[in-house]
Amino acid sequence: MICCCVKSENNKKYAELDAKLARKMVESRRIYPGHKSLKSMDSIIMKFPKLREGLRNIRNVFESYDNDSNGTIDIEELKKCLEELQLSLSDEEVKGLYGWCDVDGSKGIQFNEFIVLLCLIYLLSKPSSESNAESREMGPKLVESIFDPIVEVFLFLDKDGKGKLNKADVIKTLN
Q1: More confident residue, 13 or 86
Q2: Distance CA 133, CA 135 (A)
Q3: Which residue in 26, 65, 70, 96 is deepest, having the highest Cβ count within 10 Å?
Q4: Where is the EF-hand domain (predicted)?
Q5: Where are the beta strands (DSSP E) in 36-129?
């Protein structure tokens, strides 16, 4: 199960999600060998065109499920989208993700929130490090192709390996 704290108060649910994500990122160090090939900010910048293309593709997916063209995806549109993307989640999990990702409380997922939502699903549904690379694949290549490089960049910037970025690590890397 992805969402463990659907009905929790905001601070507690975000703290639990934050802890779960930090654990996943620490675990990801063993799964993603790509971050070791990044040697400098230049190697990250070289990934920008691929990331831009992936984000364009995700925007197309978002727009195709925004049935009423209001710039947001409601919960029913989201359920249909996740089903089409072959991301099988329970109703409780979808509601939990919807609540976490509707950051502005507008009762709709905007594009930037949609990216966060897909990223959460991608990260939290990744199997543990015992699994082989074949079984790590989730849903369509579209999702994997955009989030794998992002995870690799995150791991490159996470110098202390604790699964969280801090200002000192990022500044150290930039210098």
Answers
A1: 86
A2: 6
A3: 96
A4: 53-88, 145-175
A5: none
